[in-house]
Structure to design on (269 residues):
């Protein structure tokens, strides 16, 4: 079975025409023999638009391939409440769900993820300081949330562990949006980035994946492309599409589809 994974497509920010993109994506996925297309979040700045897009892509693929997605922080800014984000909002939405792959011992576990400030660049600030900075300067400050960041991350860890226990003896592919291992965090000394690193993910998640012998994990959020990296026995895949804006240009070409195809992670299981 062949799996393709993408993350950080940012279709609205990158000004992509969906009507032109979807047929090309479907054609390439079918040509590549992909059975399951996974997306690890940050598709639109609105969950409703994100969901509508993946429904259209699934419709274009028909029975040739399945589509599943989770939400990144951008997807959660508009169009969904905290409670809805934790629910089975749609069959294509993989957050807090597991998907057993037919003809394989592989199980895909999906979880949006979050952060608990454990990846913050020194010097460490208080939780209150990070939360205040987030509300003032970071897009996540617009996301409705009745719990603290650390409480939200605690739920991620709890539901992830439950899913890993249920998948005992299986080959687990873990899909999340936020950074799961401190090795990926780079330090610059810039005050804004020092604060932003606190909102990248959680070191506790990587420790949990290692504890349960997870085979592989894919994530995004950091907008820095890396080759596959094995850390603590887990192979991590981090290949975000990222931004193709004049103000922030992270591509190697000037065409979204080229970047999407180039950054696809292809796994055969």
């Amino acid at each position: 079975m062949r799996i393709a994974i993408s993350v950080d497509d940012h279709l609205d920010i990158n000004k992509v025409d969906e009507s032109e993109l979807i047929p090309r994506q479907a054609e390439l996925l079918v040509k590549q023999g992909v059975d399951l297309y996974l997306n690890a979040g940050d598709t639109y700045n609105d969950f409703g638009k994100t969901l509508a897009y993946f429904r259209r892509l699934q419709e274009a693929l028909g029975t040739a391939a399945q589509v599943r997605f989770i939400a990144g922080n951008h997807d959660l800014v508009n169009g969904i409440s905290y409670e809805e984000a934790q629910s089975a909002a749609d069959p294509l939405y993989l957050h807090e769900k597991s998907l057993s792959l037919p003809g394989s011992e592989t199980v895909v576990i999906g979880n949006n993820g979050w952060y608990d400030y454990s990846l913050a660049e020194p010097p460490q600030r208080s939780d209150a300081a990070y939360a205040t900075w987030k509300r003032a300067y970071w897009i996540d400050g617009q996301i409705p949330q009745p719990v603290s960041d650390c409480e939200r991350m605690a739920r991620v860890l709890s539901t992830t562990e439950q899913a890993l226990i249920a998948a005992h003896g299986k080959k687990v592919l873990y899909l999340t949006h936020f950074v799961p291992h401190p090795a990926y965090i780079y330090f610059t000394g810039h005050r804004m980035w020092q604060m932003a690193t606190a909102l990248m993910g959680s070191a506790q998640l990587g420790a949990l994946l290692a504890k349960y012998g997870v085979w592989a994990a894919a994530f995004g959020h950091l907008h820095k492309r890396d080759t596959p990296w094995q850390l603590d026995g887990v192979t991590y895949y981090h290949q975000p599409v990222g931004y193709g804006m004049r103000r922030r240009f992270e591509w190697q070409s000037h065409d979204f589809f080229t970047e999407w195809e180039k950054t696809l992670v292809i796994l055969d299981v």
Notes: Strands lie at 2-6, 36-39, 66-69, 97-100, 106-110, 171-175, 216-218, 229-231, 234-237, 265-268. Residues 2-268 form a domain with the Purple Acid Phosphatase; chain A, domain 2 fold (CATH 3.60.21.10). The radius of gyration is 17 Å.
